[in-house]
Amino acid sequence: MFTYHFYQSKAKNATKGLWYPQIHYDRTLSTRELAEHMAIHNSGHSAAAIEGVLLDMISCIKELLADGNKVKIPDLALFQYNIKSRGTMDVKSFTPANSIVGVRLRARGTGASKSSRDSNGSLGVKITEGSFRAAEKYKNKKTHVEELENKKP
After folding, report:
1. Spatial CB neighbours of 5, under 8 Å, sequence gap ≥ 6
2. pLDDT tens digits, 102-115
3. What's the CA gap between 21 and 146, in Å, rounded?
4. Is-contact 9 15, C-beta < 8 A?
5. Alpha-carbon gap, residue 12 to 34, rounded angstroms
């Protein structure tokens, strides 16, 4: 089940002032916590062994990306680096020092984790009232949004 809260758009366009749901996350799990969770699924491996494999995987993915490869983990993500840069008037005036601002790690969903735009929702989740719930600490905001909606002419 997904938990959500609301945010109000501050964009300077037609969406300004509109309210949108946003996935609410309680916390971020560490690699160690992920390994401990995996170990309780009868994997036959200790949390320490799983954590070691995960840490090696992270290191190897970074190495392969730096060597100019993309790395795909099916039904999770395709990892790649993207360049953030300033444009130049022509390619002859380009230098990495004056144009490249930074490099970003990008992860795009693949397989069942890839967003789809069909009427059944995305990520393999059928969108129903039971699939989502308002975050407890944001329920007052939900009520506030509903009040605003009721005041509209």
Report:
1. 21, 22, 24, 134, 135, 137, 138, 141
2. 999 999 988 866 66
3. 13
4. yes
5. 40
- Residue 104 C-beta-side C-alpha neighbours within 13 Å: 8
Closest CA to 104 of 65, 58, 54: 65
Tokens of 133: 């719930």
**Contact by Cβ (8 Å): 35, 54:** yes
Residues ≥6 apart with Cβ < 8 Å to 129: none
Query: Model's pTM, two decimal places?
Result: 0.67
Alpha carbon of 83 to those of 12, 20, 102, 105, 134: distances in Å?
A: 27, 30, 6, 9, 37
Spatial separation of the C-alpha atoms in residues 84 and 138, rounded to whole Å? 35
